[in-house]
C-alpha cells in the first residue's frame, strides 16, 4: 500500500518496507491518498506475524484507508530467541521481552506525532493472539483508544477478575472456531507444560460487569452471515458478532467494525 506523494514527504517511514522505529520496537503505517490527518486503526497481527505482513495485505488496508483511516501495524517480538513473534499476554507463559501494553501506547503516541492522527478517533483491533492483546490493552488501559474490536481472541488463564474501567468493545468470533473455541481450550506444550485459553463467554461476563450491562442483551440481529448481540450498558458499550466459520476474518468484518466505531459518536 503506497503512501500518497504528499504524505510520503510528511512521513519519514511508511508502507511495508520502511518501518517506523521507536525505542521499544517498530510499526508500519499506511495512510489514505491526500492524507491531512484524521482517524486511525491499529491492527495487531496474529502469532508469528509482523506489521509488514499486515500492511502488505492490500485488501485489508484498503478497507480502512478507503474510508479515511490510517492503518498502523505494530510488530510483536519473538517470545524467546529463535521463536515466533508473539504478544506479551498474562497467560502463564515465560517472561516476555517487552511490556506490550506500554509498547502499543508508545506506538500510538509516535504515530500521532508523525502522522497527525486524531488521538480521539483511534480504534484498536487485532486477530487471534492479536485479538487477545486487544482484550489485554482494553482491560489494563481502557481509555487508551476510543474503541476496541478484537477478532477470534480473548483472555488466557490465569484470566483477570477485574479491569481498570469500562470500554467500547465489539467482539467478533467464529461459531465453529477450533483454534480459539468460544468455550476455551487447554493447550499442551511439551517444552513448557499446558496453557489455557479462557472461555470467551466468561470474558464477556467480565466486560458486562465493567460496563454495567444487564445479563440479557438489549437487542439481537440475525442475518444470513452474522448473529449479533448488543447490550445496553450504563457506561461504554458492548457488542458480540458471531459468524458461522472458523478461525478467520469473516467477509464484511471491516465494514461492521467501522460502522460500529463511527456510531460511537466520533
UniProtKB/TrEMBL annotation:
Q: Which domain of life is it from?
A: Bacteria
The AB hydrolase-1 domain sits at: 39-152
Which InterPro entries is this protein grouped with?
AB_hydrolase_1, AB_hydrolase_fold, Plant_Biomass_Hydrol_Est
Q: Keywords, A to Z?
A: Hydrolase, Signal
What SUPFAM superfamilies does this protein map onto?
A: alpha/beta-Hydrolases
What name has this protein been given in UniProt? AB hydrolase-1 domain-containing protein
Q: Which organism is the protein's source? A: Paralimibaculum aggregatum
Amino acid at each position: 500500500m503506497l503512501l500518497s506523494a504528499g504524505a510520503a514527504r510528511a512521513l519519514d517511514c511508511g508502507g511495508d518496507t520502511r518501518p517506523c522505529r521507536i525505542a521499544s520496537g517498530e510499526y508500519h503505517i499506511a495512510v489514505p491518498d491526500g492524507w491531512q490527518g484524521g482517524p486511525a486503526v491499529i491492527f495487531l497481527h496474529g502469532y508469528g506475524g509482523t506489521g509488514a505482513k499486515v500492511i502488505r495485505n492490500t485488501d485489508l488496508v484498503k478497507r480502512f484507508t478507503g474510508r479515511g483511516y490510517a492503518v498502523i501495524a505494530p510488530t510483536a517480538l519473538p517470545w524467546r530467541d529463535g521463536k515466533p513473534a508473539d504478544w506479551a499476554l498474562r497467560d502463564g507463559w515465560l517472561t516476555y521481552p517487552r511490556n506490550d501494553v506500554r509498547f502499543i501506547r508508545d506506538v500510538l503516541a509516535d504515530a500521532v506525532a508523525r502522522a497527525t492522527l486524531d488521538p480521539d478517533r483511534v480504534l484498536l483491533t487485532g486477530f487471534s493472539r492479536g485479538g487477545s492483546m486487544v482484550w489485554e490493552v482494553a482491560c489494563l488501559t481502557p481509555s487508551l483508544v476510543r474503541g476496541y474490536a478484537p477478532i477470534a481472541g480473548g483472555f488466557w488463564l490465569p484470566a483477570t477478575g477485574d479491569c481498570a474501567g469500562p470500554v467500547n468493545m465489539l467482539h467478533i468470533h467464529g461459531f465453529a472456531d477450533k483454534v480459539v473455541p468460544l468455550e476455551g481450550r487447554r493447550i499442551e506444550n511439551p517444552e513448557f507444560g499446558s496453557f489455557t485459553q479462557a472461555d470467551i463467554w466468561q470474558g464477556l461476563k467480565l466486560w458486562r460487569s465493567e460496563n454495567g450491562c444487564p445479563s440479557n442483551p438489549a437487542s439481537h440481529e440475525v442475518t444470513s452471515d452474522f448473529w449479533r448481540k448488543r447490550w445496553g450498558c450504563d457506561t461504554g458499550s458492548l457488542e458480540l458478532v458471531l459468524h458461522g466459520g472458523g478461525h478467520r476474518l469473516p467477509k464484511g468484518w471491516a465494514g461492521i467494525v467501522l460502522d460500529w466505531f463511527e456510531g460511537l459518536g466520533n
